[in-house]
From TrEMBL:
Upon Fe-S cluster removal intramolecular disulfide bonds are formed. Its cofactor is [4Fe-4S] cluster. It comes from the Bacteria. This is Transcriptional regulator WhiB. Acts as a transcriptional regulator. Probably redox-responsive. The apo- but not holo-form probably binds DNA. Residues 1-23, 132-151 are annotated as: Disordered. The gene is whiB. Transmembrane segments: none annotated. Residues 42-106 form the 4Fe-4S Wbl-type domain. [4Fe-4S] cluster binds at residues 43, 73, 76, 82. InterPro entries: 4FE4S_WBL, Whib.
Length: 151
């Protein structure tokens, strides 16, 4: 049996069996990469699982994990660059710039509304039965005409 060698890659030892292992060997370890603002992020020294949801996470666990990640982001010197990066790509998963996926989506919508120069479109939600809606429409018509509608 041939001796199996390993190559030290960016994520640890990789079996040297394929061309992809040889390619991975040329990728420097993450500590040697020059990533700019990302190198100064406080998240680099912590546990990455705090910033990304594991499979089948319960609501309480998610809330605790997100709160812990946001505490790290509050102190981070590159929080704004991180958020801008996440909104520009857009990053679909994890905590970036102190915002969750849903919060980033809302921020993106807010920014698009602000840059277009007009207010976002608000669609009213109709609640109730057809009779209730008919009554509301009759009231609106009556108020335009200056009359009253009996309930």
């Amino acid at each position: 049996m041939a001796q199996q060698t390993t190559i030290r890659g960016a994520v640890g030892p990789i079996p040297a069996r394929s061309s992809s292992a040889r390619t991975a060997a040329r990728i420097p370890p993450i500590a040697e990469l020059k990533l700019g603002w990302q190198e100064r992020g406080l998240c680099q020294s912590g546990d990455a699982t705090v910033f990304f949801a594991p499979d089948s996470e319960r609501i309480r666990e998610r809330e605790k994990r997100e709160a812990a990640a946001k505490r790290v982001c509050e102190e981070c010197p590159v929080r704004q660059q991180c958020l801008e990066h996440a909104l520009a790509l857009p990053e679909q998963f994890g905590i970036w710039g102190g915002l969750t996926e849903l919060e980033r989506a809302e921020e993106g919508r807010r920014r698009r509304g602000a840059t277009s120069g007009r207010a976002p479109v608000v669609v009213p939600i109709r609640i109730g039965t057809q009779r209730d809606r008919g009554f509301a429409e009759a009231q609106a018509q009556a108020s335009r005409e200056g009359t009253e509608v009996a309930a």
